[in-house]
């Protein structure tokens, strides 16, 4: 069961997104929030969330500051921005601030469904035109995050956290990691949260950038 919070102040849009999710995902439990206060309360009272779909322009919203607040409260839960925003700079800033995807409200139902599926598989999603126009902008950020993850940082991780990070680098979902390591999804999320904090990154994608050539066995032998 995938637990998703849809935070948007327009009831009709929440209903439309819920329909897309129920169509795209086999098992889906959807929670709804209509303003920032309710969104934060929902996040704090539900520690089993797998994904948050967030509109940055809800009542009480501080824009990107709201995204930062959510990342601080639930750093292990991926956040996707769903917005009518078209400014490329702002869209890319949402990724820099810790979102794992940006979906335009003008997207078709199929595009929204495909985006959510990619994100739940551990990928970052951006509109195709943003990727084409800003490849040079995005890549330096990726290299920057890669450079920040040093051997010393990896050595601060516990054995279990290393196993979780290794699985994340292979693209495994929280559910798959829990199954493979014989632990609960809640425990996996706790490990992911600790990993992000120790590596100094905002989301799991930033954590695994550049780790494809890391010899995890070297760190697991200690």
Automatic annotation (TrEMBL):
The answer to whether the entry has keyword Phosphoprotein is yes
Query: What SUPFAM superfamilies does this protein's entry cite?
Result: CheY-like
* Keyword Phosphoprotein belongs to the record: yes
The record's section on PROSITE patterns has: HTH_LUXR_1 (PS00622), HTH_LUXR_2 (PS50043), RESPONSE_REGULATORY (PS50110)
Q: Give the range the annotation lists for the signal sequence.
A: none
> What's the short name of a Pfam family annotated to this entry?
Response_reg
Matching InterPro entries, A to Z?
A: CheY-like_superfamily (IPR011006), EvgA-like (IPR051015), NreC/VraR/RcsB-like_REC (IPR058245), Sig_transdc_resp-reg_receiver (IPR001789), Tscrpt_reg_LuxR_C (IPR000792), WH-like_DNA-bd_sf (IPR036388)
Q: Where is the HTH luxR-type domain?
A: 150-215
4-aspartylphosphate carried by residues: 55
Task: Give the record's keywords alphabetically.
Answer: Phosphoprotein
Report the coiled-coil segments: none
Give residue ranges for domain Response regulatory: 3-120
Recorded hits in PANTHER family, A to Z, give: HTH-TYPE TRANSCRIPTIONAL REGULATOR YHJB-RELATED
Q: What is this protein called?
A: Response regulator transcription factor
Q: Which organism is it from?
A: Shewanella corallii
């Amino acid at each position: 069961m995938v637990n998703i919070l849809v935070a948007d102040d327009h009831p009709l849009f929440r209903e439309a997104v819920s329909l897309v999710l129920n169509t795209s995902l086999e098992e889906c439990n959807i929670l709804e929030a209509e303003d920032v206060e309710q969104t934060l309360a929902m996040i704090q009272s539900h520690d089993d969330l797998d994904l948050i779909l967030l509109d940055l322009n809800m009542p009480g919203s501080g824009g990107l500051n709201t995204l930062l607040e959510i990342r601080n409260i639930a750093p292990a839960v991926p956040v996707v921005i769903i917005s009518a925003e078209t400014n490329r700079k702002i869209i890319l800033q949402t990724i820099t601030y810790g979102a794992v995807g940006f979906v335009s409200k003008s997207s078709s139902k199929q595009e929204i469904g495909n985006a959510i599926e990619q994100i739940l598989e551990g990928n970052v999603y951006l509109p195709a035109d943003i990727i084409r126009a800003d490849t040079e902008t995005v890549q330096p950020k990726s290299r920057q995050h890669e450079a920040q993850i040093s051997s010393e940082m990896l050595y601060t991780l516990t054995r279990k956290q290393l196993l979780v990070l290794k699985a994340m680098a292979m693209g495994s979902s929280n559910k798959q990691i829990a199954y493979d390591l014989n632990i609960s999804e809640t425990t996996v999320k706790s490990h992911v949260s600790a990993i992000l904090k120790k590596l100094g990154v905002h989301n799991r994608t930033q954590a695994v950038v550049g780790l494809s050539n890391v010899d995890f066995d070297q760190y697991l032998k200690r």
